[in-house]
Design goal:
The protein has 449 residues and is an alpha+beta fold. It contains 10 helices and 6 strands. It starts with a helix and ends in a 6-residue tail after the last helix.
Length: 449
Amino acid sequence: MRPAFLSIISDEKKYPMKPHILFILLLAGKGLFAQNSLPEDLKTLVNQSFLVHPQVQVLNQQEAIQEQRVALAQSGKMPVVNATANYLFNLPVAQVNFPTGPNGELQTLYFQPYNNVSAVIQANYLLLDFGQVATNISKSQQELQVTQDQQAQLQTQLASQIAQLYYGVLYLRESIRVQDSVLGLLADTKKQVQAKIAQGDALQLDVLNLQSTIANEENRKSELQTMLKTQLTNLQYATSMDQVSGPLSFDFIDLAGDADSLLGISTSKNPEFELARDRIQVATFDKMLAEKKTRPSLGVVASTGLRNGFQPDITQIRPTFSAGLSFSYLLFDGKRNQNNISVADANIQLQQANLQSLEEGYSRDLQNALDRLSLEQDRLKNADVLIEQSKLAYRISNSRYLNGMITQVDLLNAVNQMQRAQLNQLTFAYQACLAKIELARLSGSNWWE
């Protein structure tokens, strides 16, 4: 035997079906989770946001700056070569008269020329610093990795935001279509009431009450349209695109496992955990640098050039050369470096505490997302039954109203129940999709690739 509601729906001669009624009934049968792969336009929107979002441009510039800092740190291994040229005029200059002949002739001996000229090239090279330069390079490279992790974290966040906007647009568009169908049902009901008034079977008050219901539903439609415009505006800001052409489907990637197993995936793949670990490493390098500043350093200094001022002809410009070693060791700094070590050590502990807090927060958020997904999936199972019941109730109520067996209020209640059941199914599917998006974000999945 066929179910009663199938008999009622299929009997078009007895119960003619309006187009908007057919839309609601067909919409209820749509596969809201029928898609096996993610929409290509969603992936396009996500990758487009990676190119145009303002925050991406900021991080790209920060990465370029950090790359220059790495190059600057690496230059510490190279010698420093300076070239200087000087001219100095002296007056008076040191001089002395010496007798130089048998008759007591005097000759003036100058110790410095009036015109002093020099041109020198000097080179300094650090021979031994007990790892200070190498540690500084490692720290700079780790800071560059922090910037790159921030970019990856931003991409994960942007992908989640774009996905929420994308499916929000689909949800609002479908809600507006449901609202249009309800308004069509109410318009047909208004015609039926007006016909009953002409026959003396209804009151003008029935039309006024129905018009009030229509006005409320139109206001609801206006609210949905405004929300849709807001979603598209936010999408335009993030991607420079505002077109969502994908089919109605709230399917998204499924991540199997409980909160503990997903947390293991998050700690190994999510960029936020990589960022936290890199910050611990940077703090460790800060401490190492502070410790190594107390160690000595040994360098070599060499110079060559041209200058005058050498006896016996002090005006003649001659080549010069010198070379030597320089040794530096910190004896006392008022415990400043020791305080720097203490601060660096405290910063390491702070970053480790942040990592522990991050793990606890992710464990909580993963469990919440899993609970919400389970709840919405259970609601979806019940929604199918409620939709079938509401369809049957509306068809029966419409027939009974035409035959004068129930009042207009009973018919409107049937319309509202069918509308609520359909919108609830959309909402449950949308909320389940949002829970999956959150799980993908928390796990660090690069689903847009």
